[in-house]
Amino acid sequence: MHYQLEIPPRVIIGTDARTSVAQEAMNFGWSRVLVVSDPFHEASGRTSEINELLSKAGLEVSVYSGVTGEPDTEMVTRGLKQFKADKCEGIVALGGGSVIDTAKTISVLAVNDGTVQQYMGTDTVTKPGVGVIALPTTSGTGSEATRVVVIGDSQSSLKMSGRSKAYVPSVAILDYKLTMSMPKPLTAASGIDALTHAIEAYVSRQANDFTDLLALSAVRLIRNSIEHVWHDGSDEDARQDMLMGSFQAGIAFSNSSVGLVHSMSEPLGACFHVPHGLSNAMLLPAVTKFSVAGAPSRYAEIARCMDLANSSMADEECCQLLIDGLQQLNRELEIPSPKSFGIGKALYEEHIEKMAGDAAAAGSTGNNPVIPTIDQINEIYRSTYDT
Ligand SMILES: NC(=O)c1ccc[n+]([C@@H]2O[C@H](COP(=O)([O-])OP(=O)(O)OC[C@H]3O[C@@H](n4cnc5c(N)ncnc54)[C@H](O)[C@@H]3O)[C@@H](O)[C@H]2O)c1
Ligand SMILES: [Fe+2]
Questions:
Q1: Residue 90 phi, psi (nearest 5)
Q2: Packing angle, helices 184-203 and 260-272, rounded to 10
Q3: N or C: which end of the chain has fewer CB within 10 A?
Q4: Could you count the other beta carbons within 10 Å of the beta carbon of residue 77?
Q5: Could you tell which of 108, 276, 279, 364 is best to mutate to test the pocket of ligand 1, judged by most ligand atoms within 8 Å of the CB?
Q6: How far is CA 338 from the centre of its chain?
Q7: What's the confidence (pLDDT) of residue 157?
Q8: Which burial class, exposed, middle or buried, applies to 98 when counting CB atoms under 10 A from its CB (0-12, 13-18, 19+)?
Q9: CB within 8 Å of 320: residues ≥ 6 apart
Q10: Mean pLDDT over residues 226-239, rounded?
Q11: Which pTM value belongs to this model?
Q12: Does pLDDT of 158 surpass 90?
């Protein structure tokens, strides 16, 4: 038995790490760079700060801030067009998972001919893309470290995912100061996304010794900081720990896998425009309740790591405390249910069959500790509606 690890070759971590962006770009020998960002960062002045750092070092900068939501094929295609028109040589991504996924996909298409769809699925990319320097501004997706992109199909609105070595960024710059401006709902949803990555990586059928270490470390970091940072967004230590936790969780799931929470979350997000982190958070307690029987000792270890249980307790008791603890965390962080998010009961019911079919077909379902039937997935969606 052997396993492979794919991790960013260079990572810069710490206070004001973002100021190293120009040196990193120069290390590639680029003279023209595409900065991929979004309207929030453009308006808040963060994009200009990065542009100035790059310009002062003598680089020509082209800004693409057309990532107006979770990315789709059109956003990628427009960015690619600009990359080519402005003869850019590399990419700096400043934003959350949406911006970083867009940047990673533009990078691959800048070198590989064809459509976005051709490079979705597993190991579909042949040639490495252009260099990407990723600066995450949310503590959630871990995209700055992963071999994964999630891109919606603008025609069908289906969420596609690509998993290839070429999607691992060349440089990740982790500067928690970029995350300080996150409002409460984003802090909560992206933080639970990161926690879900860590939990699903640890209980995955693809888990290995290396991903286990990072997954448990991420669970601890996130558990110890998520409530602090939600109550007090200016808590720098907690922001730093959340960013490190989400980075570690990203490496963990990218080198093992996610599971049923993510399989069920994508269709929920696609049908009802629920942001990724939020749809994960809505599903995490119910999917955990369903899945514990497949890996009780692993879920029990997570409960202990989260200080929800202690070593003298039997696994079964720890698993129940974990389910209760995750429900309590959702309440504490004011995570809405699908109902309180505003999805009507009849409309939700109408979509369950389609969502369950898509979730059953998703690649990560087969890595869940318990592999569900379609009826069981239907039931989990139903039980999540109003909790
Ligand atoms: N590639 C991966 O490994 C991976 C993993 C999980 C999720 N994803 C994908 O990532 C996307 C979600 O990314 P996300 O959760 O980071 O959110 P996001 O990038 O979609 O951003 C959400 C909103 O928050 C704003 N925002 C971002 N940073 C901010 C900050 N510091 N202060 C204030 N506002 C800020 C953005 O402008 C946007 O309006 C989804 O498309 C999801 O499918 C990718
Ligand atoms: Fe996720």
A1: -160, 175
A2: 140
A3: N
A4: 16
A5: 276
A6: 20
A7: 77
A8: buried
A9: none
A10: 98
A11: 0.98
A12: no
**CA torsion 125→129→132→134, rounded to 10°?**
-10
Q: What is the DSSP letter of 103?
A: H
Q: Could you tell me the CA-to-CA distances from 345 to 237, 342, 351, 385 in Å, in that order?
A: 41, 9, 10, 8
For residue 87, the CA-to-ligand 2 centroid distance in Å is 33
Place of tokens 């973002």: 18
Helices (H), the chain: 21-27, 39-44, 46-56, 73-85, 97-111, 184-203, 209-231, 236-255, 260-272, 276-291, 296-305, 315-332, 338-341, 345-361, 374-384
Given the CA of residue 178, which atom of ligand 1 is nearest to it?
A: 31
Q: How far is the CA of 5 from the centre of ligand 2 (A)?
A: 19
pLDDT in tens, 176-216: 999 999 999 999 999 999 999 999 999 999 999 999 999 99
The per-residue pLDDT for range 331-372, each reduced to its tens digit, is: 999 999 999 999 999 999 999 999 999 999 999 999 999 999
Q: Please report the atom of ligand 1 found closest to the CA of residue 253.
A: 3
Residue 145 CA to ligand 2 centre (angstroms): 13
Q: What is the pLDDT of residues 69-121, one digit of tens each?
A: 999 999 999 999 999 999 999 999 999 999 999 999 999 999 999 999 999 99
Domains and CATH numbers, the chain: 10-179 (3.40.50.1970), 184-384 (1.20.1090.10)
**Strands, sheet with 159-163, edge to edge from the N-terminal-most edge strand:** 121-122, 159-163, 148-152
Amino acid at 138: T
3-state secondary structure of 264: helix
Residues with beta carbon inside 6 Å of ligand 1?
Answer: 38, 40, 70, 95-99, 101, 137-138, 140-143, 146, 148-150, 178-179, 181-182, 186, 190, 193, 276-277
Average predicted confidence (pLDDT) for the chain: 97
| HSE value, Cβ hemisphere, 13 Å, CA-based, for 307 | 7
Closest CA to 94 of 207, 181, 203, 218: 181
Q: Which residues contact 102 (CB under 8 A, 6 or more apart)?
A: 36, 67, 71, 75, 76, 79, 93, 151
The residue to mutate among 6, 132, 137, having the most atoms of ligand 1 within 8 angstroms of its beta carbon, is: 137
